[in-house]
């Protein structure tokens, strides 16, 4: 009897192992549903070109003379000149409109820029979960983005050289920043005309080399619902930093959202598009590889509630700009949260790498219910996950059948073509181990276990009956 029980325990143990997910499989199952989000912002800015306010500078001269006479700026002409320039630039940066006033000359500039983030498909009909701050902007924020782009084009070496010629001294990097800040402050408050257009695009999958350009893989999207009516630029105080956008596609791969929050200390996997890697790295990588997401991992550091009453998850997983809106997965391969914001180091004002915040799956579940959107998987996902299981077990012929079904259902699937090629290569090299598939014959295995289990129960009951009918009766007679 003990051997029989041990056999049942062993079979159940093997079943548990077969259904558990390792990190690599979590990534492969869900990577197709993680998407790059690009917000294209084009605008036109018109402003009056500035001129110096002579009266303000004359008033400033008296202050400067007092510092010169007191010896606060040094004793040599070079020391005095350097300190005077720095003093003037600091005053201009603190109050640009006091020292710069509009002239009659108008400047009109056209600008095209953009912002990036991440998202995850949660419904096969094109519904995508992301962060509010990725796709929603206030007008002041858009104006700032457009003006910043304009300034990056306008403030060149010539801009600084002109000032240096007038001042008769070369500017230090810190002084260049002060001059740029003064000019930006002036432009922001002296815009005479401003218009813009914002378009949201979703990059599906991995671009193939040989195509005309990467932009062919981006689909236009509409914003369906945002999670907060608070000030978008203030992420910490904005409430639910989640949003739903939609593209005109169907049969898309999706990820499932967990019904339960994770436990503190549990491992998570984050998939997304950190801008530092996918855009700011410049020519370090092939342009067509930007649509392949980045995977990081960490643990759930804490479960918290924000000052707006929003359930959030703190994690030490490496996350940076561009990851916003992207999913984090638990050990079951389900979404436990989406990336929202990071905590800055108060001393240097730079985001830390160890303290990042996700909007919890509890908030996400309520949000999609409000939007009347179902989080479901399609036949594409079911066939793809079975194909992945078979592939990892080196049953390449079995995997090929599932992958080809995926290709029929969704020809633009970003990864299935490569898997089909790899399957065929492994088959040709004699590496295929197809045959009886444990993963592919789950029903049969469960039936066998059920039969063994029921048979064992029958033997136990029969033994008890025999014992009471015969052996106990015999003992009584004796």
Give the helices and strands, then pairings.
Layout: H1 2-19, H2 23-30, E1 34-52, H3 54-70, H4 77-94, H5 96-99, E2 100-123, E3 127-130, H6 132-135, H7 139-154, H8 157-167, H9 173-189, E4 191-203, E5 218-226, E6 243-247, E7 267-272, H10 275-278, E8 294-305, E9 311-315, E10 327-329, E11 335-345, E12 350-360, H11 361-370, H12 379-392, H13 396-409, H14 416-428, H15 442-477
Antiparallel strand pairs: 1-2, 1-4, 2-3, 3-6, 4-5, 5-6, 7-8, 7-10, 8-9, 9-12, 10-11, 11-12
Helix pairs in contact: 1-15, 4-9, 7-9, 12-13, 13-14
Structure summarized in a few sentences:
By secondary structure, the protein is of the alpha+beta class.
Strand order of the largest sheet: 1-2-3-6-5-4
What's the pLDDT, averaged over the residues?
82
* Counted beta strands: 12
Class by alpha and beta content: alpha+beta
Helical proportion? 40-55%
The number of helices is: 15
Q: How much beta, percentage-wise?
A: 25-35%
Which residue ranges are poorly predicted, with pLDDT under 50 across at least 5 consecutive positions? 3-20
Q: Which word captures the global form?
A: elongated
Quaternary state of this entry equals single chain
> SSE order, as H and E?
HHEHHHEEHHHHEEEEHEEEEEHHHHH
- Output the radius of gyration: 32 Å
């Amino acid at each position: 009897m003990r051997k029989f029980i041990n056999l049942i325990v062993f079979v159940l143990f093997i079943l548990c192992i077969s259904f558990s997910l390792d990190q690599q499989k979590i990534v492969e199952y869900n990577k197709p549903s993680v998407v790059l989000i690009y917000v294209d912002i084009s605008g036109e800015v018109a402003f009056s070109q500035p001129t110096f306010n002579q009266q303000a500078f004359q008033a400033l001269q008296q202050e400067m003379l007092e510092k010169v006479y007191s010896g606060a700026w040094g004793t040599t002409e070079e020391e005095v000149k350097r300190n005077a320039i720095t003093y003037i630039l600091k005053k201009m940066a603190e109050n640009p409109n006091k020292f710069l006033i509009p002239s009659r000359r108008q400047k009109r500039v056209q600008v095209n820029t953009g912002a990036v983030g991440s998202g995850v498909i949660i419904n096969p009909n094109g519904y995508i979960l992301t962060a509010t701050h990725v796709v929603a902007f206030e007008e002041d924020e858009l104006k700032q983005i457009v003006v910043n782009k304009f300034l990056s084009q306008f403030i060149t070496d010539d801009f600084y050289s002109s000032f240096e010629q007038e001042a008769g001294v070369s500017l230090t990097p810190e002084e260049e920043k002060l001059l740029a800040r003064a000019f930006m402050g002036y432009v922001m408050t002296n815009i005479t005309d401003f218009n813009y257009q914002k378009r949201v695009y979703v990059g599906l999958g991995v671009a193939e080399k040989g195509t005309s350009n990467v932009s062919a893989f981006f689909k236009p999207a509409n914003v369906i619902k945002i999670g907060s009516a608070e000030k978008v630029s203030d992420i910490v105080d904005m409430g639910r930093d989640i949003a739903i956008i939609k593209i005109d596609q169907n049969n898309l791969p999706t990820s499932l959202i967990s019904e339960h929050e994770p436990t503190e200390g549990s491992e998570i996997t984050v998939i997304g598009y950190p801008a530092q890697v996918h855009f700011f790295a410049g020519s370090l990588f092939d342009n067509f590889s930007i649509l392949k997401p980045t995977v990081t991992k960490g643990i759930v550091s804490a479960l918290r509630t924000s000052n707006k009453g929003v359930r959030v998850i703190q994690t030490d997983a490496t996350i940076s700009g561009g990851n916003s809106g992207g999913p984090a997965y638990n050990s079951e391969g389900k979404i436990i949260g989406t990336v929202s914001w990071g905590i800055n180091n108060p001393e240097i004002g730079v985001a830390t790498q160890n303290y990042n915040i996700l909007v919890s799956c509890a908030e996400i579940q309520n949000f999609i219910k409000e939007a009347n959107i179902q989080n479901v998987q399609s036949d594409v996902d079911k066939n793809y996950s079975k194909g992945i299981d078979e592939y990892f077990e080196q049953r390449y012929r079995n995997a090929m059948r599932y992958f080809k079904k995926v290709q029929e259902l969704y020809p633009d699937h970003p990864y299935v073509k490569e898997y089909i090629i790899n399957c065929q290569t492994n088959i040709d090299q004699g590496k295929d181990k197809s045959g009886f598939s444990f993963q592919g014959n789950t029903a049969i295995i469960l039936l066998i276990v059920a039969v063994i289990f029921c048979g064992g129960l029958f033997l136990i009951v029969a033994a008890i009956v025999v014992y009471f009918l015969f052996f106990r009766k015999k003992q009584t007679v004796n």
